[in-house]
Design goal:
Blueprint (H helix, E strand, L loop, with lengths): L1 H8 L5 H5 L2 H14 L12 H8 L3 H13 L3 E4 L3 E4 L9 E5 L8 H11 L7 E4 L9 H14 L4 E4 L3
Parallel strand pairs: 3-4, 3-5
Antiparallel strand pairs: 1-2
């Protein structure tokens, strides 16, 4: 029992880790090493046997920690080869502007805009569209006003739809 307490405190002196189950200690330690850059995407993690020795723990406990990393999407396991770090590419989000000078005076474009934003591919992006007051004397002035709004809102791209 004393040996187990020592092994739990070896990876970190954090009090919370001392009270955590051993598989969680292993998980948190490997996670910190992955996030800290010790293991990069594509790198092979130490074998389960090596991790057992390092953490003075059973193979079942180590496997549970690696399975948790796998379920978190950080590790992929290859039978007979080992466990490899698999970091997802960072998601880039963009803000797009949809310039429709007469938005609100037609029935179709509002539905199209809503349909675009309900698409699964749009979940990391935002679509902005605006309207101009009817005080504008022409479509050109309305479009210019909308362009100014999109610039102020840092739109990455603007699509113009003329009705």
């Amino acid at each position: 029992m004393e040996r187990m307490k020592q092994s739990r405190s070896a990876p970190s002196t954090n009090t919370a880790l001392k009270q955590a189950p051993m598989h969680r200690v292993i998980y948190d330690t490997l996670l910190a090493e992955i996030q800290g850059g010790q293991y990069r995407s594509g790198d092979r993690l130490p074998s389960e046997l090596d991790l057992c020795k390092r953490f003075q723990s059973s193979r079942i406990t180590v496997a549970k920690a690696i399975n948790s990393l796998q379920h978190a999407g950080l590790v992929v396991r290859k039978a007979g080869s080992g466990s490899y770090v698999q970091l997802a590419a960072p998601v880039t989000s963009y803000r797009f502007g949809l310039l429709i000078p007469e938005l609100g005076s037609t029935e179709i474009f509002e539905s199209i805009c809503q349909g675009i934003m309900q698409s699964p591919q749009a979940k990391s992006h935002s679509l902005i569209w605006g309207h101009t007051s009817h005080k504008s004397s022409s479509k050109e002035e309305a479009a210019l006003s909308l362009c100014r709004q999109f610039i102020e809102q840092n739109a990455k791209d603007v699509k113009f739809l003329d009705v």
